[in-house]
Every structure is written in structure tokens, then in C-alpha cells.
């Protein structure tokens, strides 16, 4: 199977996914194998919601829409243009996936297959409905994918390399267990935003998407703010308000009530607006329904701090602060070339021999 065949298959997958958006499900005439797969995928979306209370219909469709927009011929070719695919050295790369947001492991899946390798997938129990169905669709679109995609619920065996995503604790286990294999091991990372107090209302409203999308469960969700001394949080809270209905989601509300009770009993100082608490804290990882913040005196000192702690940071949202910053509202809309932990998984896949 040559590279162009693999590209064509994923472009067709993107077209298939375009039928499932927050605007509703729209069956299109030109989509291949739609009679076999359209209704089935609607059912898988429903199952994903029933299996995991965090996977609301809105969040599942947001993820699907993002992948539909990325899986275009133009985007894929831009993504892979710097790599050399001249030779095919078929190896099996195992992927251990997280399950915090819908299809969170899809980029690894795509990277391995577009590189021409075989993939062995161990899914999280929290996110196991969508990807196997999409893999079957790929195999129908491009039969040469058959035998290159496999799933396991047990022990990972017969593989040449591994990409594993987990917590800091599981990463230590991964590093030991896979010490004899080429590997990419991902640990906990968080995203943060740097505010100056000069942000427009539109920028802060966009920031609310970075905070609340997927209930803040993703590593690209902003969980920490750096703000100047005497920062006025009223404008910030006003911009967050259009997410107020999130408190009616039971799992989110339970976390809000629990964390608020803990803070009050511990006599921690915090501000809250009925659905979001903000607390001064040096940590990067904040609980659900909570945003940590920290004051900064000097931009240069803050830049040095961020550089020193770069291994714990996934994204930095700001305006004109850093060269590699992300614009407000864009953390959950990564491009194909925006790699988790800045590790090029295509380059990794191509080096396995």
C-alpha cells in the first residue's frame, strides 16, 4: 500500500465524519459505504455517551468535527511534507491510549498508519466505542488496511515499539515495562494562560472554551492562569458566564460541590461564581470546576519559570507573550502538526526498524 492510498483513505474518513456535527446528523449521498456505516456510527455515538458520562453528545461531536476538518488532502500533505516515505519497513507499533476525552488517541493511530506501519491498540475502558468502528470503516475504504489494525484488551504482545499515554505514576511503570523497546512515554501535562489585564472581552470569552470544553479533562485544557498583581477577576468571571449551564451536568456539579466543600472546610481562600472556583495555587493541575491562578511581577521572570517547567506544560495561551503561544480559544482545535508533548510521532514511527 503506497502513501497516496493511505492519504486517500483518511480523507474519505474525514468526509464520513463530516456527516456528524453539532448542527445535527446529515446523511450525504456521495459518502462511500454510507448504507453500511452511517446508522451504525450514530449508534456508537449513543453508546459512547451511555458508557461515559463525561462524553456528552456535544463533546463527542466537537471531537468528530475537529477530525473531519483536519482530515483533508491539503492538511495531511502539509503535515507529512517534511518526512521521507520512500521505503516501507512494516513494523507493529503498540499504542496505549488514554480515555479522558473522545478519540484522544486518534492522532497516534493516524500517525502510525500514515507512516505505513501496523498498529496494535490497547484502548482505555472509558473510550472504546468510537475508534474500532472507524477502523472498520477504514478497512472498507482501503482493504489493504486489513491486517494492519488490531485491538487488544489483554497483554500487549508481538510489537516492535510503543506509544503510551498515562499519568506520572503509570509512566514510571511504562518506562520499566517497555525499557527494551523504542518508546514514546507521555506523562501528566497541563495547559495555562497568561493574562495581562488588557485582554478584550472576545479574547476572554474565547479563553472560556479552552477552560470548559470537555469539562477541562484534556491536557490541552487551561487549568492555570498567570495574572499580574492587582488583576481584576470581575471581567474574567463575566466572560466565563455563558458556560453557566455546565453546572446542570451532574458529574460536573458533583465535582464542584465536593471541591467547594473541601476548600471551605480547609479555610482556603477562593473566588467562585456558582459554577467555577478560582484559587491561588502554584500547582498547574487543578481539580474539575476549579481554576488555579498565580501572580507574576516580571514577564522575564515568568518566561524563565515557564522554560524551567516546560516538561509539565502542554500549551500556553497568550497574546504576544511567547513565540510558540496558542491564541485564545484554540487549544482544543490543534492541527495535525501540533504534536502532544512536541514529540513527532511520524518521525518516531518511521525510525522503527
From TrEMBL:
Any idea which UniProt keywords this protein has?
NADP
A molecular function (GO) held by this record is:
acyl-CoA dehydrogenase activity
* Residue spans crossing the bilayer: none
Q: Which domain of life is it from?
A: Bacteria
Extent of the signal sequence: none
Q: Does the keyword NADP apply?
A: yes
Protein name in UniProt: Acyl-CoA reductase
Organism in which the protein naturally occurs: Psychroserpens burtonensis
Amino acid at each position: 500500500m503506497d502513501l497516496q492510498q493511505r492519504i486517500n483513505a483518511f480523507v474519505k474518513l474525514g468526509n464520513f465524519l463530516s456527516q456528524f456535527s453539532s448542527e445535527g446528523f446529515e446523511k450525504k449521498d456521495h459518502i462511500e459505504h454510507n448504507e453500511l456505516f452511517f446508522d451504525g456510527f450514530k449508534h456508537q455515538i449513543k453508546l459512547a455517551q451511555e458508557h461515559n458520562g463525561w462524553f456528552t453528545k456535544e463533546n463527542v461531536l466537537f471531537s468528530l468535527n475537529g477530525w473531519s476538518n483536519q482530515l483533508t488532502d491539503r492538511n495531511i500533505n502539509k503535515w507529512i511534507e517534511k518526512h521521507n516515505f520512500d521505503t516501507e519497513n512494516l513494523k507493529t507499533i503498540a499504542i496505549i491510549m488514554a480515555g479522558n476525552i473522545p478519540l484522544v488517541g486518534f492522532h497516534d493511530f493516524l500517525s502510525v498508519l500514515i507512516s505505513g506501519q501496523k498498529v496494535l491498540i490497547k484502548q482505555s475502558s472509558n473510550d472504546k466505542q468510537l475508534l474500532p468502528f472507524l477502523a472498520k470503516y477504514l478497512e472498507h475504504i482501503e482493504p489493504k488496511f486489513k491486517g494492519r489494525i488490531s485491538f487488544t484488551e489483554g497483554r500487549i504482545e508481538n510489537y516492535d515499539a510503543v506509544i503510551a499515554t498515562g499519568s506520572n505514576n503509570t509512566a514510571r511503570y511504562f518506562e520499566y515495562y517497555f525499557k527494551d523497546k523504542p518508546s514514546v512515554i507521555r506523562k501528566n501535562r497541563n495547559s495555562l494562560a497568561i493574562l495581562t489585564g488588557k485582554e478584550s472581552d472576545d479574547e476572554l470569552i474565547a479563553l472560556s472554551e479552552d477552560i470548559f470544553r470537555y469539562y477541562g479533562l484534556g491536557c490541552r485544557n487551561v487549568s492555570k492562569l498567570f495574572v499580574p498583581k492587582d488583576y481584576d477577576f470581575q471581567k474574567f468571571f463575566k466572560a466565563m458566564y455563558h458556560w453557566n449551564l455546565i453546572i446542570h451536568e451532574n458529574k460536573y456539579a458533583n465535582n464542584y460541590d465536593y471541591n467547594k466543600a473541601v476548600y471551605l472546610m480547609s479555610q482556603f481562600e477562593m473566588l467562585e461564581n456558582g459554577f467555577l472556583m478560582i484559587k491561588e495555587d502554584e500547582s498547574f493541575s487543578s481539580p474539575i470546576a476549579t481554576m488555579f491562578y498565580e501572580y507574576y511581577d516580571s514577564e522575564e521572570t515568568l518566561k524563565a519559570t515557564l522554560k524551567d517547567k516546560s516538561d509539565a506544560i502542554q500549551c500556553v495561551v497568550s497574546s504576544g507573550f511567547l513565540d510558540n503561544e496558542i491564541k485564545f480559544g484554540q487549544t482544543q482545535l490543534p492541527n495535525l502538526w501540533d504534536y502532544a508533548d512536541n514529540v513527532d510521532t511520524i518521525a518516531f514511527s518511521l525510525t522503527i526498524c
